[in-house]
Amino acid sequence: MKLPLLLVFLWTLTTFSLQMEQVRAEMEQLETFDTQQVVKRQEANQRLRRDLDKCRNGLHAGPPPTEPPNGSCPYGEFLNISEPRVYTAGEYPGSYKYGAWGRDPKPEPGKESWHWLVLMTSSNRYSNYVRQYHSLSSLIVGQSVPGNVLISSSNPTTNTIQGPNVVLYGGSLYYNCYNQHAVCRFNLTSKTVTNVDLPQGTRYNSKGNFCHLDECYPYTDLDLATDESGVWVVYTTTQDFGNLVLSKVEEGEPPKLNQTWHTSVFKQGVTNTFVACGVLYATRYVSKDVEEIFYSFDTTTGKERFDVGIFMNKMSTNIQALNYSPVDQMLYAYCDSNMVSYEAMFESSGDSF
Ligand SMILES: *[C@@H]1O[C@H](CO)[C@@H](O)[C@H](O)[C@H]1NC(C)=O
Ligand SMILES: *[C@@H]1O[C@H](CO)[C@@H](O)[C@H](O)[C@H]1NC(C)=O
Ligand SMILES: *[C@@H]1O[C@H](CO)[C@@H](O)[C@H](O)[C@H]1NC(C)=O
Ligand SMILES: *[C@@H]1O[C@H](CO)[C@@H](O)[C@H](O)[C@H]1NC(C)=O
User: Fold this and answer.
1) Could you tell me which residues come within 8 angstroms of residue 183 by beta carbon, excluding any fewer than 6 positions away?
2) Closest ligand 2 atom, CA of 80?
3) Where is the Olfactomedin-like domain (predicted)?
4) Which of 9, 29, 203, 304 could form a disulfide with 207 if both were Cys (CB 3.0 to 4.6 A apart)?
5) Of the residues 67, 70, 298, 305, which should be mutated to test ligand 1's pocket, given the most ligand atoms within 8 Å of the CB?
6) What's the CA dihedral at 279, 263, 179, 103 to 10 degrees?
7) What integer pLDDT is reported at residue 77 of this predicted model?
8) Distance CA 271, CA 291 (A)
9) What does the pLDDT read at residue 317?
10) 4-43 b/e with 16+ CB inside 10 Å = b?
């Protein structure tokens, strides 16, 4: 009687440790893969950034570039979006409905595979820290090393993060600062905050939100975005009658706004936006399973389109934050407490990578 039981026990134990070993090996593989991908993408990205610069300058001086054939994006036209690539509840399953995650497109050396997470920890509205993970796999299994970087010990206070559409770029978090129509920038190294005001008339404090049908997403007045050229802010103003406005944010100290573009798409008919290759894209709600990238505005040509027609399959009903990462051409979405990523597919995605 006892021997078979012991055997079963030993067998279970062995299977279990074999499984653990397998999981560990898979995690290691995933991390190596993470790092290799990042290095490869960064090399490609530097090349593409040069191409983009060349191309931009080409519009004003010198002979017209032969590459790219269409538009200003070195990858060609944005054509489609993949099925979800990463889908994880992360460290706090179901705890925080509003948040954002991603990776820094311009990381400090050694932090190339780090990922970040910002959760609206209070009233679905405020946050006072950035949580960091040293790889995608550590974010998935919920092991935060090196942990949190605090903006202040409590919230809300002057420089509290208000609203989920934040981005990390160049070691700084860009976000809507609490109770102001301004972009705040929190430098995670110096732990200081500097800011830049948006124009008078900018809607803030949940008065210029993203919406679908008759429901709006609270405190989504300012949507920060990253692309190949840096940081952008998407918002709306009273004088623009609630239509989307897009401004380039320059990295200097303090940050400054550069050029601004006015669109004719009504923000309340949009659920979120992202910028890729200098083109603003807007999404709208189709059903609980599908979101549509329906609109684009090309800042190089000023051309608007309402017929983009790219569909995203969702893992849950709402998208609270959405951003494009120029290091890996992925879209990072935060959806009802879950972190989801998608691959953005361009005309030449397949060839270059
Ligand atoms: C540019 O795009 C247009 C329409 O999308 C297409 O008709 C044209 O052939 C393209 N040009 C090149 C050089 O690929
Ligand atoms: C776009 O990608 C989806 C997968 O996300 C695929 O099912 C669909 O066929 C693609 N559409 C086109 C036009 O390639
Ligand atoms: C952040 O602070 C560090 C240390 O003071 C500094 O070297 C870096 O330039 C700052 N970053 C920005 C974007 O100002
Ligand atoms: C504004 O953008 C232009 C074009 O990219 C650039 O040449 C200029 O330096 C920028 N201005 C500031 C203040 O950064």
Assistant:
1) 174, 175, 176, 177, 195, 196, 198, 222, 224, 233, 249, 255
2) 1
3) 72-348
4) 203
5) 70
6) -10
7) 86
8) 9
9) 96
10) eeeeeeeeeeeeeeeeeeeeeeeeeeebeebeebbeebbe
123 lines ligand 3 (CB under 6 A): no
Q: What is the pLDDT of residue 58?
A: 43
d(CA 67, CA 74): 7
The tokens for 103 are 């990776």
pTM: 0.81
DSSP 65: P
Protein residue whose Cα sits closest to atom 6 of ligand 4? 258
How far, in Å, CA of 333 to CA of 319, rounded?
Answer: 7
What phi and psi values does residue 14 have, to the nearest 5 degrees? Answer: -65, -45
Q: How far apart are CA 95 and CA 38, in angstroms?
A: 30
| 3-state SS class at 351 | helix
* Side chain identity, residue 85: R
Helix, strand or coil, per DSSP, at residue 177: strand
Distances (CA, A) of 217 to 250, 271, 318: 27, 8, 9
For residues 312 and 292, is the Cβ–Cβ distance under 8 A? yes
Per-residue model confidence (pLDDT) at position 20: 56
User: Which residue's entry shows tokens 């090399």?
Assistant: 43
Task: Tell me if the bond preceding 255 is cis, omega within 30° of 0.
Answer: no
- Report mean pLDDT in 10-residue bins for the chain, 353 residues: 49 53 57 56 61 50 44 80 97 96 96 97 96 97 95 93 98 97 98 97 98 93 96 98 98 96 98 97 97 96 96 97 96 98 87 42
| Residue 229 CA, closest ligand 4 atom number | 5
- What pLDDT does 288 receive? 95
The residue type found at 63 is: P
Distance of CA 70 from the midpoint of ligand 1 (Å): 6
